[in-house]
Design brief:
Length: 421
Amino acid sequence: MKDIADIPALMAQIGEQAKAASAVLAFAPAEAKELALTAAADAVWARRAEIIAANAKDMEFGRNKGLSDAMMDRLMLDEDRIQGIVDGLRAVAAQDDPVGEVLTEWDRPSGLNIQRVRTPLGVVGVIYESRPNVTADAGALCLKSGNAVILRGGSESFHSSGAIHACLVEGLKTAGLPEHAIQLVPTRDRAAVQELLTMVDTVDVIVPRGGKGLVGLVQREARVPVFAHLEGIVHIYLDAAAEPQKALNVVLNAKTRRTGICGAAECLLIHEDLVDTLGRAVIGALVDTGVTVHADKTLSKFKGTIPATDDDWGKEYLDMDIAARVVSDVDGAIAHIRDFGSNHTDCIITEDDDVAARFFQRLDSAILMRNASTQFADGGEFGMGAEIGIATGKMHARGPVGAAQLTSFKYLVVGDGTTRA
């Protein structure tokens, strides 16, 4: 490896190594990839004490940096969360291999047989913040889909990511696959990110996973194509036909289960007919659980709320805060979400099928939900084993990005001495 002081040379070498590894992975047997991921899962569990010790260094770094409680929660690893990493690796390992899947096939009058089949993207660069489990998720999904990956974790998770990455490399070795198929940038230096964004000769796509600042930087400065994972400004609309207990359960879970993830609810929209009934009950329950409710003029009459400002609409708190506003009907909710949402995940609570259909039809978020917690906005919960992120753009991948979404396709055309007139 090149001297870390020479960042351009370091990143160039990482890129070349990844490109060479991707050429091998493109035709690696499904059994070898499954073995690599299973062995990596075994290594993570066997080394859990080492990973937790590395995480303790990162937690100290985060405290000294002044990270919020929610961000510290994203960073923290304990044995239960390491079990989650192991389970995710095993789940991805057990999935069907997407590479080579025939998406469609047809015959032409000319005598040609044409197939469209899945093929790897090549080399994926993943830039992420705080959450060290992304190291395992991204590494696993890229490997499963036949892609080499360059991981650049956040400075906060430097030690944890390194310990997890070592387990992934152990899995690659066990399966006889190229060690450079999963590489972790070995420096906190931000110059490495700048280099990665411009490595058009060796990197095929960049996936940023983090806050608005990170994603904005990547979108502004990348010369490599980007799968955008924008902030999760997640709305829940309580319709006039909402069932009260469902509404209460869903809102509390969506806001408080884990506040630091992108599927956490950030804005509550309440039908005007519900203000003094279900609205009062839900806001009271949020306040009682320690959530700061930034309420509009109508809702600020309720005890424990604080007045909302213009900055509260369209804000990703990632903490025990939620904005709350009264709307006249479903169209008012749709208009608010169009103005302030991020096309990530939005939810309606209603028993009225027609209203739900209107909400689904007229919004274009990557994920739309009905009567379910937005905390389910997760690739693992979608049955993908894990996710590399939730793409909010409209090109190529959208929503949870699993192994299948990390592929492109190619056409296989077969004739029998066929010529064109």
